[in-house]
Design brief:
By secondary structure, this protein is α+β, with helices and mostly antiparallel strands. Helix content is 57%, strand content 18%. It has a five-stranded antiparallel β-sheet with strand order 2-1-5-4-3, sandwiched between helices. The two termini are 38 Å apart.
Length: 230
């Protein structure tokens, strides 16, 4: 199996798991776990949101992530504060030489043993949800492949968070969300679509056949066959 097929398989599986997760916290946990597992040099990862009263780490792989993010708020500088729609990916490859955030970077490097860090905004269309943070241990530096994989995880998470919140807004029960997640995974694999386009496919079938979206998704999940419609 070549690298392209390997990564394609990894991300299809990740999308299926994210889509089938029972709630948003479960999706975030999957994303954080995948960050450590799939990004070669990532030893610690977390998900943070910027609020008026500071940075909140909603989920982290360990205490290093939580403390590193807390320091950004305490000191008033750091990648999670700076990342925005104009600069979606912010990388500090060598924290012991970082000039943009000198106080924060030197403390994280010396006190927490972190060598490199990147923060990636999780957003889709007009919605920004927070950011994923990736940290290496001292002696490691993120390379271009690490950045590409990290950005892919972040993009996948954003799409699934968007569709997940839409499903939650519609008031669908857990059983229905699981059926939709499984159907999305099948559609993604069969038609080579993103999660967003797979969900759009379900909505189109629902509209054209005058059937509830959940019914269409359940049928696909059970039969593993894609319906046809005019």
């Amino acid at each position: 199996m070549n690298d392209a097929k390997h990564w394609a398989g990894e991300f299809v599986q990740l999308m299926q798991e994210l889509s089938s997760a029972k709630d948003e916290m479960a999706r975030l946990q999957l994303a954080v776990d995948s960050a450590v597992r799939l990004v070669d040099r990532c030893s610690h990862a977390g998900y943070t949101i910027n609020e008026k009263n500071g940075i909140t780490t909603r989920l982290g792989s360990d205490e290093i992530v939580k403390r590193a993010n807390e320091l950004q708020f305490e000191i008033g500088e750091g990648p999670c504060i700076s990342v925005n729609r104009q600069q979606v990916t912010l990388i500090c490859r060598e924290l012991d030489r970082e000039r943009r955030y000198p106080t924060w970077a030197s403390r994280v490097h010396a006190e927490l043993g972190v060598g490199s860090m990147m923060s990636i905004l999780v957003y889709h269309d007009d919605h920004s949800y927070g950011c994923l943070s990736f940290y290496t241990d001292i002696g490691e530096t993120f390379d271009a492949d690490d950045v590409a994989v990290a950005e892919a995880i972040s993009a996948h998470l954003a799409v699934v968070m968007t569709s997940g919140r839409e499903i939650d807004h519609l008031g669908m029960a857990l059983r229905n969300r699981l059926a939709i997640g499984r159907a999305e995974g099948i559609i993604m694999e069969r038609l080579d679509l993103t999660a967003e386009r797979a969900f759009d496919y379900l909505r189109r079938v629902s509209s054209h056949t005058n059937r509830k979206l959940v019914a269409v998704a359940t049928e696909i999940a059970e039969t593993r066959q894609l319906p046809t419609y005019e």
